[in-house]
Design goal:
The chain has 191 residues and is mainly alpha-helical. The chain is built from nine helices and no strands.
Length: 191
């Protein structure tokens, strides 16, 4: 199911880092066993954008009111729907750290109607699918989400889908390649 997308913007090598990106990329490398992910090395072509995007991305990834498991299900579904194998693969690794099983990760590809999801998980996946399809969560889905998410949680849900939609589009458009050891899409699933 892997799709070959041509690289349009190559990640900067360490030799190409200038004084604007060196502190950012060095900090990112220090937090990742000395390795800079391709997404960051690619976005380093635009240091001001990278710096400001990291603030928002950090909120969505680490400060969101969505619990890690639910957040990762939403991110995986978003990456899958937008056909971003890079995003999917990076978040497979994060999802496993959040306690999501291999079977559940594969099931994300089948979406909200797949058997086995809790009611809340199915609702989060359905909301993600509705945002992808309609750029809006349907009234009935919104109402059901209000049963377990407060206003901040609902906002974090929308902004999580939005953040990873944006990232998925950028990754695919720039042709960012998966980092070594990052898995691709599962063999089965639907769009």
């Amino acid at each position: 199911m892997s799709e070959s997308i041509p690289r349009r913007v190559a990640p900067l090598t360490e030799e190409e880092w200038d004084e604007d990106v060196r502190p950012l990329l060095s900090a990112l490398a220090a937090s990742n066993d000395g390795h800079v992910l391709n997404i960051f090395a690619t976005l380093a072509h635009h240091p001001k954008l990278l710096k400001r995007w990291l603030v928002f991305g950090s909120h969505v990834l680490t400060k969101s009111t969505l619990p890690p498991r639910e957040r990762e299900l939403v991110i995986l579904r978003t990456g899958y729907l937008w056909r971003s194998e890079y995003e999917w693969g990076q978040h497979v690794l994060i999802a496993k750290d959040a306690g999501i099983t291999d079977e559940e990760i594969e099931r994300v590809a089948f979406g909200s109607d797949a058997p086995g999801w809790s009611k809340q998980e199915a609702l989060l996946l359905r909301a993600t699918e509705e945002l992808r399809r309609d750029a809006r969560i349907a009234d009935d889905t919104w109402s059901e989400l209000q049963g377990f998410l407060d206003t901040q949680g609902l906002m974090d849900l929308v902004f999580t889908v939005g953040q990873y939609t944006l990232v998925s589009m950028a990754l695919r458009t720039f042709g960012v390649e998966r980092d070594e050891g990052v898995p691709g899409f599962p063999a089965a699933g639907n769009r």
